[in-house]
TrEMBL record, chain A:
Pfam family for this entry, one: DUF3726
GO molecular function: oxidoreductase activity
Organism superkingdom: Bacteria
Protein name: DUF3726 domain-containing protein
Stored InterPro entries: DUF3726, Mal/L-sulfo/L-lacto_DH-like_sf
SUPFAM superfamilies named among the record's database cross-references: L-sulfolactate dehydrogenase-like
From TrEMBL, chain B:
Lineage, uppermost ranks: Bacteria, Pseudomonadati, Pseudomonadota, Gammaproteobacteria, Cellvibrionales
Originating organism: gamma proteobacterium HTCC2207
Highest taxon of the lineage: Bacteria
Designated name of the protein: Uncharacterized protein
Length: 244, 583
């Protein structure tokens, strides 16, 4: 079946609310899923994987465990980027000072691809980002220039020992500035694949024009989660809607 | 009405920030927002201006009704930039099943506005799904889905009169104002429809907020009159006459609006801010335009408008005591304005009277609704100066945290922009005496009583004032321990406040910000929220049925499709009973 973007966001917001997410968190999480799905990154598949965890636990956020002027480490405590991605990106952004870039490492976190939407949104405020993480047996690198609407997504062979569930995010006023300051940490292996902004925008336009294809079972799962935020109707509650 | 081109240039060149805009502390009070009336920037007004000026063409490729008026109708619309189809299904409805509530599941009419033309296959698809409304699914070729119920008081009466060769009594029409009532017009991607982003970027004809939804209601109005003519002719072909054009223009579409609309205003604060800022800009533009004095001709136009509103309000029938009393007071005060204009206009023109003085006088002496009626009338006087603002009614609605802001700066912002929220004593029972929730019945938003009704644990976060207070207290505690930290660090320690922090930081940058009301107070009047939004839609004749829902009319007095392309004076606001002319 096909759904619209607005409809999907509305449903996801309520579904995440049903999972215990608070205002702000459920909006961000819905935006992350929809962005990935509409830009060709299998957002629904990743959501289904996330739901297994999210359905089994109360919402957990990351903890700040180490920090100096421009660098910080966050403990994801096994949570999903859907819950801690915004905090991580906000933190690294807040550490960018005049002429200097900043970096964070977030370890023990899952569903890291969702971070892309947060980077895209934050880039609108004229910050550039590079993020990378290990995915199976390759490394994913996402970079977006300050003010750009879309990132570049690349995969590389792995050359350094990366914690399997860690994510590194670098932020600065331009990609050039980040690459200059963190040259040593931004060494990648052989380029495997590049997914360009043009491909992303084509995917997005298709979903906008014709709607977003979603598996009916997933849609029903979301509906079931939405029911958690609904209140049974009674004669008294009908009066609370104004009567007729 | 032509304005001085030099004045237009002068005002266009002036920065909006230099205009004497009213402050947020005055405008964003809920009672004032709930006293707004339609203006030239209201969506129905701007849509009608566009359709008339661009001479949209409407044909009827399918008009397949039986002798009871049931069947299928498809209108094809050639707008300036595209072709659209308005598809309507007319069904038999047991009068016992006729219900205006969102929870209804059968209606007299169901409708869809679609992009392009509609072929047989798509029509079958629509016939299967559109009558089901929320229980059906449509696709991204559909822009709007809507439904309507007949007026039990007017529809059969009008058809009977026409069938017998008579025009209906205008007084009977005036009591109701319409033949059909719409109970919902869904757009913006609901139920599989096209996203607003698609409509905005692909269909320029409807690229303004709610333009497609308003057009759907306009086409419903057109059908309602065509169906009445058709049924009269079917019933009595020998004697039937068509409805008089002046009555047709006077007929609108009824509307029932309930709590479902209220959360929209809270959940779209940037959009609401934009609507209000444009309306206030229009008002300030009118004030500035009068700075060198108001001429007699403009005074006379204001006087004519005043007399029209007096008559309009006198023709409204409402059982609601508050609204009825308000209408009486507003009429009396407008009568005083009328007499003053009659007596003083010549003198005022000589002494360079300015509208700022009238606004000030009204604020000091008259009812809040009188003030806002006058403001709407003043905006009406300067179409060339204000109509361009209609292109600026949209807004990018993203709310973002500014993580680098220090917590002390955030505290200062809250104290400055949300002083109204901090002034509320939430320790009082009545300050938290209500809560908003979604019902299992079609997810309808409802208002519950704290500690009495079920569902508090599933409360919707619409009590912005209370959230601000809770967040402010938390930041204060945090800043005592970590005074030099920024918002990013505060959020990491207190992630549950990320939503309200993003809202406050974002809205602090807007001119008008949030609606200044405690929406979880036991005595909250949601009807003010509904009226505010409906005023931007452009409805008239508010008839509150309780503090939770209101009836009103849409497009009453508006030009007909047959008027498109004609030189029509855009003055159909505040509709009044027609005096029938010979056709």
């Amino acid at each position: 079946m096909k759904v619209s973007k607005n409809e999907l966001i509305a449903s996801l917001k309520k579904a995440f609310e049903g999972l215990g997410f608070r205002s702000g968190d459920y909006q961000d999480a819905a935006d992350m899923v929809v962005w990935l799905e509409t830009h060709g990154f299998d957002g629904f598949e990743r959501l289904q994987a996330a739901l297994i965890y999210l359905n089994a636990t109360k919402p957990i956020h990351a903890e700040l465990v180490q920090e100096d002027t421009h660098n910080a480490v966050l403990d994801g405590r096994g949570t999903s980027i859907l819950l801690c991605g915004s905090e991580a990106v906000d933190l690294v952004r807040s550490q960018v000072m005049l002429g200097s870039c900043a970096a964070i490492e977030l370890f023990d976190c899952y569903n890291r691809s969702f971070i892309m939407q947060r980077l895209v949104k934050a880039a609108q405020r004229n910050y550039a980002f590079i993020a990378y993480w290990r995915q199976l047996d390759y490394c994913v690198k996402v970079s977006i220039e300050a003010g750009a609407a879309l990132p570049e997504y690349q995969t590389f062979t792995i050359t350094e020992v990366l914690e399997p569930q860690s994510l590194r995010v670098f932020c600065g006023t331009s990609l050039e500035a980040i690459e200059k300051q963190y040259a040593l940490q931004l060494q990648f292996g052989t380029l495997l694949e590049t997914y360009t902004g043009e491909e992303m925008i084509a995917c997005y336009q298709d979903s906008l024009e014709g709607g977003i294809e979603i598996d009916e079972a997933l849609w029903r799962t979301l509906d079931d989660l939405v029911t958690r935020v609904l209140v049974p109707s009674t004669d008294s509650s009908r009066a609370g809607a104004g009567g007729s | 009405m032509q304005q001085d081109p030099h004045l237009i240039e002068q005002l266009a060149a002036s920065n909006i920030r230099l205009l004497p805009l009213r402050p947020a502390s005055q405008v964003m009070q809920l009672e004032r927002l709930g006293s707004f009336h339609q203006s030239r920037l209201s969506f129905m007004r701007t849509l009608v201006r566009r359709m008339v000026a661009e001479n949209w063409q409407v044909s009827t490729p399918i008009f397949d009704l039986d002798d009871q008026g049931y069947g299928t109708v498809v209108y094809q619309v050639e707008a300036k930039y595209g072709t659209f189809s308005f598809v309507l299904f007319s069904h038999y409805l047991d009068p016992e099943q006729r219900n205006d509530r969102v929870i209804a599941n059968q209606w007299d009419l169901t409708m869809a506005l679609c992009e392009g033309t509609v072929g047989p296959e798509q029509l079958d698809f629509l016939r299967t799904n559109v009558p089901k409304q929320e229980a059906g699914r449509v696709d991204s070729r559909v822009l709007v889905l809507s439904r309507a119920n007949r007026s039990a008081r007017t529809f059969d009466y009008v058809v009977d009169e026409l069938a017998q060769g008579r025009q209906p009594n205008v007084d009977v029409i005036a009591e109701v104002g319409y033949l059909y009532r719409t109970t919902a017009a869904y757009g913006s991607g609901k139920l599989g429809m096209a996203d607003w982003e698609k409509v905005r970027t692909k269909h320029r004809d409807f690229a303004r907020p709610f333009a497609a939804e308003m057009f759907t209601c306009y086409m419903l109005r057109h059908f309602s009159m065509q169906q009445a003519d058709y049924l009269a002719a079917q019933r009595s072909p020998e004697t039937a006459v068509n409805l008089h054009l002046d009555i047709k223009r006077y007929l609108g579409i009824g509307n029932s609006t309930g709590l479902g609309m209220a959360p929209f205003l809270i959940n779209h604060p940037l959009l609401i801010n934009q609507w209000i800022e444009m309306r206030e800009t229009a008002l300030a533009t009118a004030v500035v335009a009068s700075e060198t004095g108001v001429d007699r001709e403009t005074m006379a136009r204001l006087d004519m408008a005043t007399q029209r509103v007096i008559q309009h309000l006198g023709e409204i029938i409402t059982a609601d005591e508050r609204q009825s009393n308000s209408n009486v007071v507003v009429r009396e005060e407008l009568q005083a304005l009328h007499l003053w204009l009659q007596e003083q206009a010549a003198e005022l023109a000589i002494t360079h009277y300015v509208w700022a003085d009238l606004i000030q006088y009204a604020e000091q002496h008259w009812h809040i609704e009188t003030q806002e009626v006058i403001n709407s009338m003043l905006i009406e006087l300067y179409p060339d100066l204000v109509d361009g603002l209609e292109e600026q009614m949209g807004a990018e609605e993203s709310q973002q945290i500014t993580p680098e802001m220090s917590v002390s700066e955030l505290l200062a912002i809250i104290e400055d922009k949300y002083d109204w929220a901090l002034a509320i004593d939430f320790s009082k029972h009545e300050s938290v005496g209500a809560f908003w929730y979604r019902s299992e019945e079609k997810m309808e938003p409802r208002l519950g009583q704290t500690n009495i009704d079920m569902g508090m644990e599933k409360e919707m976060p619409l009590g912005i004032g209370r959230l601000v207070r809770e967040c402010y207290d938390c930041i204060q505690d945090y800043s005592k321990i970590s005074p030099s930290q920024n918002v990013a660090h505060f959020i990491i320690k207190n992630p549950t406040f990320s939503g309200i922090v993003a809202r406050m930081q974002t809205m602090a940058q807007s001119r008008y910000g949030d609606i200044r009301e405690n929406l979880v107070h036991s005595d909250v009047l949601p009807i003010y929220l509904l009226r505010c939004k409906l005023s931007f839609f452009g409805v008239s004749k508010f008839d509150p049925r309780s503090r939770l829902w209101v009836r009103n009319t849409m497009f009453q007095g508006a030009p007909l499709i047959s008027d498109f392309g004609q030189a029509i004076v855009d003055d159909w606001q505040f509709p009044i009973k027609p005096v029938l002319t010979t056709q």
